[in-house]
Structures
1.
Amino acid sequence: MKIVAADVVVTSPTRNFVTLKVTTDEGVTGLGDATLNGRELSVAAYLKEHVVPLLLGRDPANIEDTWQFLYRSGYWRRGPVTMAAIAAVDMALWDIKGKVAGMPVYQLLGGASRRGLSTYGHASGRDLPELFDSIRHEKEHGFSAIRVQTSVPGIKALYGVAAQAQASGERYDYEPAQRTALPVEEDWDTRAYLRHLPGVFEAVRNEFGPDLALLHDGHHRMTPLQAARLGKDLEPYDLFWLEDCTPAENQEALRLVRQHTTTPLAIGEVFNSIYDIKDLISEQLIDYVRCASTHFGGISPLKKVMDFAAVYQVKSGFHGPTDVSPVGLAAQMHVGMAIHNFGLQEYMEHSERTNAVFEQSLTFVDGLLHPGDNPGLGVELNEEEAAKYEYQPAYLPYNRLADGTVHDW
Ligand code: GCO
Ligand code: MG
């Protein structure tokens, strides 16, 4: 079998998605996610200009060889643009292999290690009553693990906290694409945050009892010492994990945090390769790997990093926001189904419009996510629907401190 076409499809149903569609001479197609939130067109160009011409004529069966060829022959390794492009090719080839074999991809990765994937939902509130409502809503939706984000007195706008109350019965996008010409500026005050957050978790624990798994995303905003203090302060409330407590590129930071707290730590959504996370795993400085198939080079490296992590009892907690497309989500669901050291899958749920563009076989029943048993990844692109939504520039927000200094957000 030979690859005869590889097309890059950019669509923007509610947010921007970049998808690679690989076609073989036998008419089998495979999909891959190459979406890099806020920098989407750079990956689309990387694929179109530099990857697609290299794929034509190759045997789609040789996934590992194609991955190594794209990674090594490019000379310039790693980085989110390169690795999202390679990820899309890797996913598309696994999709094709599954379709040819007549099996869902998780079967090719070793078969199911569980009935489905435990997931966590997102809750947020500008005050406690709103937060409690939001948590109740997520519980009713089937989640037994919930990420809790809260407004902080003195901070006007905070990423991850919905700007309005969750309408009852409606799934809410906590981090909608901001289709603005420039990134929206938000404000930040770490001391106010550190003072406020433990009280919020105390109130949530008192209200919802000991069973509910609670998570929090620090979104890279703290110094190592501040993160260590927050981890300690949150210990009485038994968090499932504290995510991205410090900027991910400073891996030494996790050593300091770890020495001070037993709050479990999760990191990795911005990592692109095993070299970003190997020391954190082998030194047992983290508990959960937050990498996403899309930004980590695809299914092949994600499976490998998890097998490496298994040696150290480190589990998965793959990044599943709405800017990872249904194709990227499916790719990591298949990995999660197969590996023994699965932990928890983030599940934000895509919009109805997105789900009309990407037709999926996944199911979500009683908090358990399953990729379905369609051959391949279980996602098909409805190209007519996709063509309705033109690319629209959209940016993530950013933070400034009171004196105007740009801060990690
Ligand atoms: C999460 C993430 C997202 C990211 C977003 C960036 O834990 O879900 O932090 O909120 O900010 O996916 O593109
Ligand atoms: Mg995060």
Note: The longest helix spans residues 80-101.
2.
Amino acid sequence: MLLKDKKAVIFGLANNRSIAYGISKALKGAGAELAFSWAGEAIRKRVEPLAEELGGAFTFPCDVTSDEQIAAAVDLTRKNWGDIDILVHAVAFANREDLQGRFMDTSRAGYALALDISAFSLIALCKAFEPLMNDNGAVVTMTYYGADKWVHNYNVMGVAKAALQANVRYLAYDLGARGVRINAISAGPIKTLASSGVSGFGDILHHIDKHSPLKRNVTIDDVGGTALYLCSDLARGVTGEVLFVDSGYNISGTQLALDE
Ligand code: 1JT
């Protein structure tokens, strides 16, 4: 039991296809207790049954753009648990129109919104939950290759994820003083609520299936396994990192595979 009696707060569960669901199952399977945030009543209706299924201790409202809601989430967690060991951040948002067309057409408001929800929220949650975080705790967040390279249509999210990955390095230094570690998982494309409706997403999945070293797409359980490792004592020397869970796709210099 890698995480026996560890307490994990999960941000970003929406349904049973969510990356947060894959991570939750893995942490639960290793003995962790779970609590879940939800943003808005529509998501609450989906999260509560899943929390039940996963033996979740409690759920709470949290729109990460609201300092008040984050503070209330901390208060509720303190009342229920007193302290925590793990924080999972699997939250991102951009307006649909900003995930297509020219990146140059991103509006000031769309840019601010994507960066606020997808990148600043990690800083805000780390700061707010730091007083509850036990020594040697762990934080995990989610990123994507579009942070590192130009990826068609990923646009403002690429910039938001680049900021998020830099946040991880700077937060790693601050949190490291108490042995708290923070890492990002760069997952290959996965069909979730966030990615459904992204035009051309099926083509991206097909491309990875054809051209990645493992010749398949990754699953939320693949991500869950790496999240479990990162949250456990097995990764005690690892912080500030971005780990790829992408069937090896990122190692390729070209997608021209010879003789296949
Ligand atoms: C968001 C969305 C963040 C989709 C995301 C995301 N991070 C990865 N994806 C999947 C994806 C999306 C595109 C893509 C490749 C992967 C949706 C809205 C909220 C934030 O383009 C190649 C566009």
Note: The helical segments are 19-29, 41-53, 67-80, 108-129, 155-176, 201-211, 220-231.
3.
Amino acid sequence: MRVLVVEDDDAIGDGLEDGLTEQGFVVTRARNGAEALRSDPGDVVLLDLGLPDMDGRDVCRQIRARTSTPIIMLTARAEEFDRVLGLELGADDYVTKPFSFRELVARIRAVARRSQQRVEVDDESTIVRGSLIIDVRAHRVLLRGSEVKLTPKEFDLLRFLAAATDAVRTRSEILDEVWDVNWYGPTKTVDAHVATIRQKLGDSRWIEAVRGVGFRLVEFE
Ligand code: CA
């Protein structure tokens, strides 16, 4: 599982990185809001509320606008963070500093599990996105009524993107869902499959690349 740690205080950030790595997480660090928005959010984001360049709430809102990756806010004091507002911004949970590391790990696993269940609930038997129809049970794709021949992996990838039309799927989400949970090979594989699907759909606009993050299906016709 990949965790993006957004924290400007190195004492806390280093501790989190070491502890989470020891627990088997793959940790990416960002030390300010701009860096956080440039980073791959991975499977869970730990987001400090007080960042040097941006309000953590704005960072939260912007990450949520691009991806469904769960976000846990790290706040200095309980009263500093309005829980309801936080949830409205799209945060999944929050932890008050100083926190128990063991509790934080439990929260990370809990939000990741809930987000995984959401993906499964999203499964539909037929997905219609504009002129694109994905028949999940029959493993067929129709574009303006004509069948598009896809390999099984291409089909799974298109279905995964289509299940969340407006949300960006990160490369790590795609690798976990379409390939294998433990598959940490080159992410170029994803790009190569996206390129082939675009070619088969006859228009690259169907799948938009979001720089540094991942891909999104766009219903443009
Ligand atoms: Ca801070």
Note: The chain has a mean pLDDT of 86.
4.
Amino acid sequence: MSQQPAHVGPQGPTRLIVLAGPTAVGKGTVAAAVRERHPDVWISVSATTRRPRPGEVDGVHYHFVSDDEFDRLVAEEQLLEWATVHQVARYGTPRGPVEESLAAGRPSMLEIDLQGARQVRKTMPEAVFVFLKPPSWDELVRRLVGRGTETAEERDRRLATARDELAAEAEFDVTIVNHEVHAAADDLVALMRPA
Ligand code: 5GP
């Protein structure tokens, strides 16, 4: 993997971590564990056109925006990357906050889908691309079903996407197997602070 520090701020060199992996592997849960255990790490808040799930807070979990608003963000080139995920909704990373966080020397992380990770690879190749992998396919299915937030039709669509996404592991710099959420979070944070 690349050993170059991406940005040097007042707190020394930090790297941008791009966390991707198949749907329902637990990227969101690992990101939440990073937020809780490592409050110094900045995690990007994406814009999305999907509706909030129960308990999700605008500006915290996502910036929930209309289609028109998303069009405007794209037209004004305010997104570092964006993609239509699961053929349903658009998701994108606001560019300004990422640049500000890195300029301030904060360890920074994006949690995005594979299409988005491929775009960031082109524009910020010095970032570290991390693939979060489930312990097994059965475990991935169990997590997706257990979440219970999708309809059967949407779940099937997400599983089909997940099968393709698992095949992309080789494109990444590092693989972390999500056996246990806190261990995965600590492994991720260790990558942000090169020795
Ligand atoms: P969910 O709807 O379950 O919150 O997220 C669905 C998928 O969208 C996840 O795979 C998540 O990583 C991805 N995602 C969330 N934010 C972004 C983003 O800003 N850009 C891209 N490309 N994907 C995102």
Note: The mean pLDDT is 89.
